[in-house]
## 1
Amino acid sequence: MQTRQRRPSRDKIDDDLELSMVCHRPEGLEQLEAQTNFNKKELQVLYRGFKNECPSGVVNEETFKQIYSQFFPHGDASTYAHYLFNAFDSSHNGSIKFEDFVTALSILLRGTTTEKLQWTFNLYDINRDGYINKEEMTDIVKAIYDMMGRFTYPALKTDTPKQHVDAFFQKMDKNRDGVVTLDEFILSCQEDENIMRSLQLFENVI
Amino acid sequence: MAAGVATWLPFARAAAVGWLPLAKKTMPKPPIDKKSRNDEILFVNVSGLRFQTWKNTLDRYPDTLLGSSEKEFFYNEDTQEYFFDRDPEMFRHILNFYRTGKLHYPRQECIQAFDEELAFYGIVPDIIGDCCMEEYRDRKKENQERLAEDTEAEMATDTPLPPHSTPRERLWRAFENPHTSTMALVFYYVTGFFIAVSVIANVVETVPCRPLKGSKKDLPCGEKYSLAFFCMDTACVLIFTFEYLMRLFAAPSRCKFMRSVMSVIDVVAIMPYYIGLVMPENEDVSGAFVTLRVFRVFRIFKFSRHSQGLRILGYTLKSCASELGFLLFSLTMAIIIFATVMFYAEKGTKGTNFTSIPASFWYTIVTMTTLGYGDMVPNTIAGKIFGSICSLSGVLVIALPVPVIVSNFSRIYHQNQRADKMRAQQKVRLARIRLAKKGTTNAFLHYKEEGGFQDRDSDNALCLKNRSSFEHQHHHLLHCLEKTTNHEFTDELTFSEMCMTESVGYRTSRSTSISSQQGVSTSCCPRRAKRRAIRLANSTVSVSRGSVQELDTLQVHKTSVGPQSRSSLNARTEDLKLNCDDRDFTAAIISIPTPPANTPDESLPPSPAIPGILRNSRSTSFTHETVKISSL
């Protein structure tokens, strides 16, 4: 099966209209199996669920935000979902196809530690310049705290995100230049036992 | 959460890897899913139609039958599928709910059938999708209204009076449902007649009659024959007052009655007369008195008790109150606007009729309702233009709410018709049910009479009529009950006769053809039972007149032991009294249908007549206490 998009350009028409016309079919099962770490059965299950939710074969950001927000009813998950969406959308065209979906899942669940950390770095690096600076990190951390909502114990103070970011940079920024590069990031994470242990926990999610 | 969201959960959990570097603590261990991860196809056989679906699909809604372990009860090991003996057409929709997360209501199905299927599969109707929710709600409301009407119709008018009703309750019932007794019907027609007479008298007394001798002026008949009219008026008012007081006395809730519309109309109809009696004859007050006489015309509204159509009209107007209100409001707005415009348009004209804006109201109303008396006419061009606009818009404004009122009237009218039809159908249905019940009762009794209880040898078996295995088992069950309670089943006729004869204190001894049973003779009733039984007999007398009722349950507890006998009835009467110990006679009789053949209207005759009565009864008799159960 080839990738077929009937209306390729997204500039011409509305997003909604485009999605209703676009019918994206993923590459063949064998190809996906080769590209990812899933076997055929798992891919089938994943695709069935995906296709059920998105018959058109793509997810746009609005839908993604809605879906993700349903898991976090206490707070506002839209900001973090936005960053997450960008991390998933590897081709940066505003919609997640099944391949993107499954590739990212493959990394997160079946990838090596380095790959996972690399993915996380990409998530934090909002502008994709290869460096995480304090503003980006603050945005991410604020978005995460937003998901918690108002009613937390202990109560959230206004500078909690900032403190968290400072602690993060303290740990990650080895050369104290105010930004975190990929190598610093991976190195620092590998030194931290907690993180390493936690990374192993998520392998059985599917 | 919606079903589809469950699909995305693994992905959301995977994305949690993104939090790890920020986390200060270790992540908790994930839950271990012991179930097999492999998705399998399940087969669901619904009355022969085979459906297949992924197990995951069904697992999306774990609190329904198909999503929980409850479906294991329906698993057929031999065919390796889940078998449901339900409607396959409906199942399609149920399964689609699992697949798409939206429940749709099929429009051609009965709403109750659909509800039952949902209840069976454990699906709450609230999740019906928006596309079908409105239709579902409408149909459901309509259905519920219809059911409420049915139960109302059942409980209403034609239900039998409870046997121990006070005269007050009987009176109220006679007033509310005149066709239940002749007296009430007569009263109903008499009051109707007098209402008519009163209204006609009111009308006629204003007609000019030939003047008295020696006077040229025409006199209204009311003044010429004032005495006659006064007498007629008095008679009518007396009747109305009497009726009102009777109703007030009989009403179960006096306050509620006094607040009801009909009672207010009654009061308004008769008040002017009394006020007129009380007021002095001077000229100043008589002006007000004349106004009060206008209220006598309200007597015509008393006809609404007699006419259902009038009541329907009243209900319609009440239910269309909002539409009428809107009509009124919009008319008022339009009148004010046009009156103002016309006034200013016609202001310049000399000698115009449009002297002020309120004066123009009359013109506007007459024009908008297209009456056009012509007593006020615009003269200027501007006035004529606005006048024409006024008449055109009047037609529109009035035509708009009318269809709503008409449709309301039609709906209420049809509801009423349906209620009447329901009542008629109900009678037929009840009769049929009763017939069926009687059939089963009699089946058992015939079975007993034909010696079914005897040892079944080949000869007897041939005599017995052919019965289905269901009947066999049913009769066995009834037999067990008889053995348990040490009482026997009998039929109504025999029991009613027995009841009557016992009320005079004589025992009826009846022997069955079933000689094998250890018999106990019926004991006579002790005095207190006698009193109860007499009241019983009397109540059955009064109640059975003309009304058909259901026999519910009847229990007769007697634990007397006496010699078994097949004696004839006469012989027993003498030594009947000997066994009058304290017996407990509890008769929970509700009523007896269609007057028993020998129901006397007066109190039961003394002993010499009893044997005669008993002789006329059926020859088959029972030695046992008898228990009548008619709810078979």
## 2
Amino acid sequence: MRTLVGTNMNLQGASLSSVSVGSTHKSTRPTRHYSRRVRIGMIGLKSTLNCIDNSGALVVECVNILKNKVTNGWGSVGDEIVCVVKRARPVSAATQASVNAVKVRRGDVRRAVIVRTRKNVRRPDGSVIRFDDNAAVLLNNKREMLGTRIGGLVSADLRMKGWGKIVSLAPKVV
Amino acid sequence: MKVEIDSFSGYRIYPSKGKLFVRGDSKVFRFAGSKNASLFLQRKNPRKIAWTQVYRRMHKKGITEEVAKKRSRKTVKHQRGIVGADLAAIAAKRNQTAAVRSQQRLAAITKAKSEKKDKETKKVKPTARPAGASGPKVSKQQMKGGKGGR
């Protein structure tokens, strides 16, 4: 814990602040004004993610990150992506008739939101979190979920990015 | 702010330090630094790494010596009364002085002698007093010795 060891007004001949925690004099070196660009996320083109809702997809492959103007960007937790369904659970004829969840098929191009990444994600309090895999939840064009349930845990950073509905549906949030 | 503990070494993790790793089975691991994280991912056993808390606890290093000393078992002996003689009576008997005891003995002897005399006189004249009171009615126990009583 930094404690303020007196103000500058108290400095006299024999300096009181022998235990100064932070230097009270300005350094002569020029301060850096550029900010280091932080590479968070790391979901990009051709990245595969597990699909953890009950929409029927198992593995989706990222095609585009929607927040970026260019295709060579990276997506992180809470970013919307366009993806292709690479592997899906087999859809039987009976479930096709049911109205519940839209079942996607292999080769479908859908939108999704990233809910877990293997790359570290920093939180506002400085903590860092990393999952064991990359995961996503499928969406429709209006940012609504396609599935009705989520199986597995999601990152709490989703809430900050505005995906409260997904966070509330998730069985566990870390 | 909560100070967490490291899942590998048992160190304390202050806010904004360290990493949090969520495994595929949803188990959460916290690491105080890259050293702990790396060893964990190399699947090292913290019980074999000498500077971890797990190892220290297992090999009883440091503070646990005091704890071990406290747990010395002592069996306490209790004085108990038995059915025939409750605790108070036993204590009373034990605390009798020698004088009292000898007095009691004398009293018992004289009593026994007198009773014996009575018995003999009774025997001498059995017909004279057939169904009368045969001497003072004494129980067998009393005749045998008044001292060994309750």
## 3
Amino acid sequence: MRSVSVDLNHDASLLIDIPDALCERDKVKFTVHTKTTLSSFQKPDFSVPRQHEDFIWLHDTLVETEDYAGLIIPPVPPKPDFESPREKMHKLGEGEATMTKEEYTKMKQELEAEYLAVFKKTVQVHEVFLQRLSSHPILSKDRNFQIFLEYDQDLTVRRKNAKEMFGGFFKNMVKSADEVLISGIKEVDDFFEQEKTFLLDYYSKIKDSTAKAEKMTRSHKNIADDYIHISATLNTLSADDSTANKKHCGGYYMSSFVFLQKVEGRVASDQELKLTELLRYYMRDIQAAKDLLYRRARALVDYENSNKALDKARLKSRDIPQAEEHQKQCLQKFDKLSESGKKELTSFKGRRVVAFRKNLIEMAELEIKHAKLLRTWLAMV
Amino acid sequence: MDTTLPPASQPSDVLMEPPSDLMNDPLIEPFSSLTENKPTSKIVSEPSDDFVDLTNNLADSPEDAAESVLADVAIDTTEIPLDEPSDDFVDIFGGETEAPREEVVIANVTVKAAAAADKSEVTSDVTDPPGDLKTGSDFEQEANETATDSIIDLSDDLLSSNAQKPPLASDQFVDPLVDFLSDAPPAADAKIPSRATVDLFEDEGNDLFTEPRQTKSAKQQQKSLFGEADEDLFGEPLGATTKKPVIKEPKGKPVPTKAARDVSNMGGPLQDGYTAEPADIFSEEAVTTVPSIKKTSAVNSKTNGVHSEEDTDIFAEATVELSLDSPQEERKKGVPAVPSASAPSVSAATSLAKPQSASLEELDDDEEEEEEEEEEQEDKFDISISVKDPEKIGDGMNAYMAYKVTTQTPLPMFRNKTFTVRRRFSDFLGLYEKLSEKHGPNGFIVPPPPEKSILGMTKVKVGKEDSSSADFVERRRAALERYLQRIVHHPSLLQDPDVREFLEREELPRAVGTQALSGAGFLKMINKATDAVSKMTIKMNESDVWFEEKLQEVESADQQFRKLHVLVESLVVHRKELSLNTASFAKSTAMLGSAEDNTALSRALSQLAEVEDKMEQLHQDQATNDTFNFAELIADYIRLLGSVRGSFDHRMKAWQRWQDAQAALQKKRETEAKLLWANKPDKLQLVKEEIAEWEVKVTQYERDFDRVTATVRKEVVRFDKEKARNFKREIINYLECLLQSQQQLIKYWEAFLPEAKAIA
């Protein structure tokens, strides 16, 4: 279950995990546990309680830090979403009358398992987020990150108020408008040009794949659920029947359907875990990479603007040193961004390939395993 | 009683079956099993050298039940050196199939007479039920020629205990029986492994039977790896093997137990027979000797079901003699006769085997195989029908689908071995109309054809060549095939001239009035029948617990089947969804692969897309499998259950008629009394005539009702049996399809795995 979507080479100097989480109504409290040899921390081993909002805060501060503009900031974990299992649970409660007791119990178990899986997944993505930060050479040194890990009181992160929410929304709008503008700018560097087209293309594709994979997994789950009902009905049917022979048959086949259901359900959850999660994660990661490109492009525009300003200043012979200074700064910033961006994107590529490889292999193996299990079972029937 | 072992054990072997007869229907059974007497007794007197051929011949003959009995005998007689040619056998059989049934009865009577002449002590009363038992034992004597006296002794004993002091008899034997019952389970356990595998694999072919036992038990062990599986796997064998301990029993404590079994079985009926209904006997019996009786009944009922057609006729004749008695008395006679009558058939078999090899172990095996074979033989009926090549004839709204109906059979009642006719859908419906008109009122369960589907057919008519209409035609074709197969596998329906005509005749007169059966109309009809049944049940004071329970069972089964059908349909829908989603995912993955800049990963992704593409096909096939092997089967049974209810309905109707006639008779009698009192002799004469007329009617209706009751009972038992077998077969089929698709799936993913590993 550990770090499914990213393969992180752990630095033993800073190890982070979330061993425990507590779900209270809508809030999920994660216990973030850190083990470290770094001297910047007061203790080598400590745990703090954190909420989802704290993670968002950490992410946002990182994104806003100018120095990290050239880095791919790990995507923020999605908000814990227990809506769908909850809703299903509700539906199940309503439909209780139409089902046999056994059927109901089984459905409930199934839902509980699903709920648990969602919960685990949530914990996992949060953990992965922290682990990616900790394994990053620059980000792991971040002050805010260390505070996040160490400060043993409630962070009391200011929750975003309505104005800020709107501000964030507005910022996003500006950003997307900017993106459109910037996308028209001629790229000076071939690498980034390529990277840009690739990422844009890839993003749309992976988004599509993710949606499709989600649908596919859902269908699998539906089938597994159908098997539950069928096996339960078969069971009642054979229980009703007085013929001894039939009783045996019914029970016999019912058990095969139970088995079918289990396998089908497992196929569904494994696909979900190995494939859909992978795609989903990289969808977000690519978004982060795109953000990096955006920031770089922004810097490029700034640089070009400063160039123009310098030209103007020279023309007017006024404020030349200031303009020069500004132009130099912009260039520096842009160069730095480009350099670190290049590095980041290359490492991102490698990371992506490794993660895909790992997950695809695992998925293929699991599929084979399930199919073989089912085959053995069927062959015996 | 304990004079000699062999004779004593013979009846006991035989008498395991009687309880089931009781359950089926005491009234008819005696006569049906009497018909069995004839063939068996013949076998006894004229065995054959090459019995293997014989069995084959027999297997081809239409009389399945008798045949299975014969086959059993044949197996048992393997080692007996015999002189007479086997041809006689076939002749007997051929003769019997074609010959009128009266002949059988006559034969029976003569046998009885012969028996009477042979043993004067025994023939004290031939007409009495126990007398039948003696005739049975007489056959044994003829076969054995050794232990004659002891058998007579035994039968004498039985006779006396049955006729004179039933309570005593049962008292005496209750204890051993209990012992036996408590002993039985371990014995059964010991046998389980081999039996279980046999059962599991019986559908896959015979070769498994011939394989050494070791392989089977090995497989068994493998199976037990699955925790869940065990229970279920063992569930049946236990039931199945319980029969064996009974047979085995002779070894352990030979005489008393066996005899006890006989007598307690007989004693029970005798005791109760006077006071209670046969159904009660059944329930009582069931409580005390559940496992063994259940199984035997299952086996036996099969035989009965097959025989049913003959039985009814014989019965009709036979009841004429008895009809003057009250139903109670009739039953009394019927019940005790049951065990004795069915006894000879199997006991003859056992007695033949005995002289050669007293080894009961072998007998066990034989018996076991017999059971299997019986089942097998029923599986491959001698007639196979296929419905193929649906073809659209005509255009527009007048268009219709015609199907090729091909029959393959060695049965002499058909002119050719293979023949093909073209039939349109309404012909199938017409056949059903005719059959249900003819046989429905007699309590037969006539298999219903698929409903007319206006929507589906319109699509076909409009000529859209899309997948849904092809799907529809294929579904209907398969349903029609199953419908015809059900008809020809029904022993009495097969004999119907209309069926023969349908299968054989080039041109059929156009079926008219099938519109009534179309779609909603058909459903309405079923519903009407259901309503009628429920209404009548309220009115009818159901005297038969069996029917009451069965009706409830049918009702709830119907409900469950409907639910199941909805579920399976939704499974199909979901599976199709999955297929679609997989397809779109495959496409999307292919796109992603093309966008990927890492060559290896790109290749892996496009490989994944291909795998998913294939998966889509698999899911689609699986959806078809869901539909054809599962949903259709269930739909069939929903229809069939409607027919079952229809037969219940007919029974009610017969009862109603009888009651009405009785009421009318009562009225006439009252009038008679009035007239007598008023002293009007002229009118009195008229009324007396009317009374006589009504009396005849009442007896006739009552007989009708009894006959319908018996038929329905037999039919329902047969139906249950068929249902169980059908389901087993179809579900195994279904699981096999699933297995294949899993195998494909494994192949695909295994091919993909190296690609994924190759990503650098």
## 4
Amino acid sequence: MYYVPVMLHTFLEIFRKTLKEDVIILNVQVMEQAQKKCCSNQELNPGLKMMTEDSKTASVVPLKEEKLLEVDLGELPSWILMRDFTPSGIAGAVQRGYYRYYKYVNVKRGSLARLSLVLAANAVFNYRRSYKELKHERPRKYH
Amino acid sequence: MNENLFTSFITPMMLGLPLVTLIILFPSLLFPSSNRLINNRLVSLQQWALQLMSKQMMSIHNTKGQTWTLMLMSLILFIGSTNLLGLLPHSFTPTTQLSMNLGMAIPLWAGAVITGFRNKTKASLAHFLPQGTPTPLIPMLVIIETISLFIQPMALAVRLTANITAGHLLIYLIGGATLALTSISPTTALITFIILILLTILEFAVAMIQAYVFTLLVSLYLHDNT
């Protein structure tokens, strides 16, 4: 049953270099549909999965949808300006960051190390916040 | 040293934005919610602790009082986690601010008292006069009991604020003393350092005890009034 979106996906893969933006968006939609129809990732054709991962790095992706680590340094200001700052965009960004953070806390066999990483990050954040007052407490002869 | 002592207690702002909201919301990230029957380690530990606390604290109440379980359990979790997170270096503890503790204490106390007055008026008013007082003493005792009733929210808030603030201040002072003494006489510095370690252990205990005491007293006020 899931062969239909899978075949559609392979069809679009052939034309991805010529169809640029539409193909990328359609790829994502098709992948999501395929994942919805069969419940887990392993049921998808493993060869297909390799192809989808390749499509993100090898194809010409428009600037708006590039991930941060793949943006060139010269394009960074325009990348920042192109992200949508609408309330729904910010809410989406917060949700994505939240679920990425969850990997530190809400894991199946969580350990003390993960939790202490979070607490250490909290301590560093507070240090950076209060650096102005802490500057005066350095051990100097003349403050 | 004069004004630096209290700079760690000012409300944190950054570029005029209230950072304190983020700091208050941070402990909620450490308590993930989960819909599963069998969870990961962190959530299981928290569920076990929550069950222990709720059984110990809410078993004395009747049905009407047990409707407050959610409120009291979230209260004890919030105060405990905020106090414990404040023991990390350079952290800001929201419970050192009297404003926040008053904001927690007054509504809870008022809710308990008003519930008592609305539902069991005679019994609530009867709390003002302990049993078996000699007759001439009655007017004075009623006045004293009224004062003690109205001082309850103040005492709740000020107790929490003063304990946490005093503990943090002592740690700062003794830590500073240890640092200053290392260049003068290392032996005294070692003794001071041991005192610092003992204080830190005490602070961990105090953090959790204060949460417990706060919640216990609110539940007591509730028990009187339901």
